[in-house]
Amino acid sequence: MSTRTAPGPRERLLDAAQELTYAQGMNVGVDALLKAAGVARRSLYEHFGGKDGLIVEVLRRSTAEDVELYRQTMRKAGDDPRARLLAVFDGIAEVTTRPDFRGCRYLAADLALPDPDHPGHEVTRAYRERVRGLLEHELRELGHPRPVHAAAQLSLLIDGALAAGATGSGASARELAELVLAAAP
């Protein structure tokens, strides 16, 4: 017989911070995080060294989840690289229409973390590089004559669609992506 254990303080803090920093922004207070997680202040410092450490771990966790979501989206679209790339934009159009959509977590983090040396910025940069790498791979498979440049363009479209999606105007990114892909044979 197996017993199910409740998440420990570390996981509860990560879950609460992932939810609250997305819903309320990176500047959500420590007290709100502790209350939502149901943990003592000591747990925050023991597991993360403070709020900044928690923010970095939330960003790492979120980026891993989102990169996997991109991969799943592309896999579900089949073997055609063009269809796989456009599926990303179809997915973004769907996500941006959800009532709980609050924009791009990573852009919000970059804007909210004023210290350019905050370790959260390295996490968001690495995330964007991973996404660009996924796009570039598909563009190479497609035979695009400028896969690095086109991947940068599609990345910009993704960022823009997620930023504009918070205001309800991110749906036309797919059409622009089709223009970038039109250069491929």
Automatic annotation (TrEMBL):
- Organism of derivation: Actinomadura macrotermitis
Its recorded name reads HTH tetR-type domain-containing protein
Q: Which Gene3D superfamilies match?
A: Tetracycline Repressor, domain 2
Residue intervals of the HTH tetR-type domain: 7-66
Alphabetical list of SUPFAM superfamilies matching this protein: Homeodomain-like, Tetracyclin repressor-like, C-terminal domain
Asked whether the UniProt record includes Transcription among its keywords, one would answer: yes
Keyword Hydrolase found: no
The superkingdom listed in its UniProt entry is Bacteria
Q: Which residues form the signal peptide?
A: none
Q: Which GO terms describe its molecular function?
A: DNA binding
**Entry keywords, A to Z:** DNA-binding, Transcription, Transcription regulation
Annotated region of DNA binding: 29-48
